[in-house]
Design goal:
The protein has 200 residues and is of the alpha/beta class. Helix content is 34%, strand content 23%.
């Protein structure tokens, strides 16, 4: 069975392929199918809404079941920002390093450094069935970036006092928002496919 993954992020594709292949699912990108999803406007107000928008558009364009995730970091002292704007925080051309230092700058002298990552995953099927999960990882913002692992805001996110930038991929998968969301999604997808097979 073929599923289209609505992402241009190769790291997300690798993670999803690792989860889906044991279920007999062939994960492909829009690019591999000769489709462009660049014009999709993520105008939702939550991670769930944006992941649905991406998955629904990919499903309609391809005629295949489509999976999309939307994720980001939410900082308590910044009223939950950057949140759904995590990828565009600091402007379209801002690098991960720029975004990290912008958060550190905004939190300078702030004692409340609580933050969490959120990951919402949506799968939309051509028959309009849908699976949706959302998971979190709670931690704090560091005083300075640490480590070279991970991506995005990982160097400034502390989980159990340790920067995600110092975690191996395997260790991060066990506790991260995306790792937890992927495991929850796998469980729901397996249940859905078993029920569908039983009804055929």
């Amino acid at each position: 069975m073929k599923f289209i993954i609505a992402t241009n992020n190769p790291k997300k594709l690798v993670e999803l392929e690792r989860i889906l292949s044991p279920l007999g699912i062939n994960a492909v990108t829009a690019k591999q199918e000769g489709l462009s999803l660049d014009e999709i406007e993520e105008n939702g107000t939550t991670f769930r809404e944006n992941s649905f928008i991406k998955a629904s558009a990919a499903c309609q364009k391809s005629g295949l079941p489509a999976i999309a995730d939307d994720s980001g970091i939410c900082v308590d002292a910044l009223d939950g920002a950057p949140g759904i704007y995590s990828a565009r925080f600091g402007g379209e051309n801002a690098t991960d390093t720029d975004k990290n230092y912008l958060i550190l700058q905004k939190l300078e002298g702030c004692k409340n450094r609580n933050a969490h990552y959120t990951c919402a995953i949506t799968c939309v099927f051509p028959n309009d069935d849908m699976i949706q999960v959302e998971e979190y990882c709670f931690g704090e913002i560091a005083l300075k970036p640490e480590g070279t692992g991970g991506f995005g805001y990982d160097p400034i996110f502390l989980f159990d006092g340790e920067s995600f930038g110092n975690y191996s991929s395997e260790a991060k998968d066990k506790v991260s928002h995306r790792g937890k969301a992927l495991r929850a999604f796998k469980k729901e997808l397996k249940k859905y496919m078993e029920e569908k097979h039983a009804n055929e």
